[in-house]
Amino acid sequence: MQTPNKEPESSSMTHKEEEEMLHDISKLQEQVQHMSRSQKLTEAKINGVEAKMNGMEAKMNGMEAKMDNLKIDLNTNLKTGMADLKTDLTNFLQEILTNGEKVVKETHDEKKRNVNHDSIDSNVGSKTHHIPKINMRKFDGKDPATWILQMEQFFDLNNVQNAQKVRMETVYLEPNQLVWYQWLCSHKQFIT
Predict the structure, then answer these.
(1) How far apart are CA 21 and CA 11, in angstroms?
(2) Which of 56, 123, 141, 188 gives a 20 to 30 Å CA spacing to 38?
C-alpha cells in the first residue's frame, strides 16, 4: 500500500514569529555550545586536579618511604650508639674498679708506713711536727659543706700546710669517693 502524498500544510505562523523562533533556537544553540565548552573546561580542570592529586599521592608515598628508612637508620644508629656506650662505660668502670683497688691498697700501705715512721720518730726522738689523730667521720658523698668545714677546722688547729691537706683528706674518704679521687689523679688533674 502506498501512502498518498500530501502536501505540507501551510504554517499558521507569521514571518515575525518564525524569525523569533529561529532567533530563540540560535540562542539555545549558543547556550548549548557555551555549556559544552564549560563542561570541557571543567573536565580539563578536574583532570588537572586529579593529575596533581596523583602526583601528591606519589610524593606522599615517597616521603613515607623516606620516613621509614629514617626510622630504620635511627633505630640502627641508636642501637649501635647504645652498644658502644655500654662497652665504653663497662671499660671505664672496670678501669675505675681496678684503679680503686690500687688506691685502697696504696692508702693502706701508706698508713702502715706512716705508723712505722711515727714509731721510729718517737723512738729516735725526732722533732718533726706530729699531727694528732682525731676521730673524723669519713666522707661518704653526703653533706660535703659540713665535712669540708670540719676538715678546715682540723687543719687550722694543727697548722697543716696547704700542700698536705689533700693527701690527709684522702685518708678520710669512703672507698667510692677514694675511687673517684684515684680517677682524678690518673687523669693528671691538679687537685687542691
Answers:
(1) 13
(2) 56
Cα separation, 118 vs 66, whole angstroms? 75
pLDDT bucket at 38, cuts 50 / 70 / 90: very high
d(Cα 23, Cα 115) in Å, to the nearest integer?
Answer: 131
Confidence of residue 121 (pLDDT cuts 50, 70, 90): very low
Whether 139 and 174 have beta carbons less than 8 Å apart is answered as yes
Q: Whole-angstrom Cα distance, residue 9 to residue 39?
A: 40
Beta strands, E only, 10-161: none
- 181 closest CA partner among 191, 92, 43: 191
**Which SS3 state, helix, strand or coil, does residue 134 take?**
coil
Lowest mean pLDDT across 4-13, 20-29, 66-75:
4-13
How much is the pLDDT for 95? 74
Is pLDDT at 109 greater than 80 in this prediction? no
8 A C-beta contact, residue 103 and residue 184: no
Q: What's the CA gap between 58 and 191, in Å, rounded? A: 64
Residues 6+ apart with CB under 8 A from 18: 11
Q: Between the CA atoms of 74, 80, 82 and 86, what dihedral angle is there, to the nearest 10 degrees?
A: 180
Q: How many alpha carbons lie under 13 Å from residue 97 in its C-beta half-sphere?
A: 6
